[in-house]
Amino acid sequence: MAKGKKAGRDARTALVTGAGGGVGGALVRTLAKRGWRVIAIVHAYADAQTLNGIDNIEAFRLDLDNGDHVTKWARELLGDKVDRLDLLAHVAAVGPVGPAAQATDALWTETLAVNVVAPALLTAGLLPALRAAKGTVVFVNSGAGERGVVGHAVYAASKHALRGYADTLRLEETANGVRVSTIYPGPIDTRMLLQDTTLPEGPGRTTSSGRRAWPMRSCGWPTPPGMCM
Ligand SMILES: NC(=O)c1ccc[n+]([C@@H]2O[C@H](COP(=O)([O-])OP(=O)(O)OC[C@H]3O[C@@H](n4cnc5c(N)ncnc54)[C@H](OP(=O)(O)O)[C@@H]3O)[C@@H](O)[C@H]2O)c1
Fold it and tell me: What pTM does this model have?
């Protein structure tokens, strides 16, 4: 696919994770249309190809469940491409569904890596550019970051942790001119509502990065009460 025209380094610059997803995809397209220089982080090559064809968007594939890669990538971005960052939007997340008692070590590790550790490492790595621009960090959280939700123990724990990180970062970075915001959306009709990585089988679909996703709303498998949306 042909690459779109790109904004120069003097344009307002945003970095958005989860740019291949529903919320992140809408955000990067909106910012790019408004003339921002957008650095889009995606999981799947296909999403990178699609977004690289759009004016003002430069897409990069980065696995957010690998902390070493995230830190290294942020360091290289600062050196090569970005010295001022006006907006850092943490949108990517995984949303596993299943009873708390059945959550595995692997599920905890992946969910906390993507939903908490990656945003923290990316923020820490990019703070010099955020401070230089007096930029804003936005964390997309969830109602599950404010209360427990049946069937979402791992996701809720990760979003509570993300809230703790964001609230502390705000206290620490206000003096440096960096603003920190968290938003807590209600249900949005994206692939996230289809996710269930805990189940071995189901009427699932495959996400663009190849992960299997099950329709949470169909509740076609034994679900605890209150879990179906
Ligand atoms: N949808 C809702 O109802 C809802 C409600 C409240 C809050 N939220 C929050 O809104 C945000 C956006 O969610 P969404 O609804 O837009 O979901 P989505 O469409 O599933 O987008 C999430 C994105 O994160 C990416 N991602 C997952 N694991 C990754 C990894 N290891 N490395 C890199 N990228 C990875 C996914 O890529 P792949 O799919 O290719 O793996 C996907 O593009 C999330 O923080 C979510 O917690 C959503």
Answer: 0.89
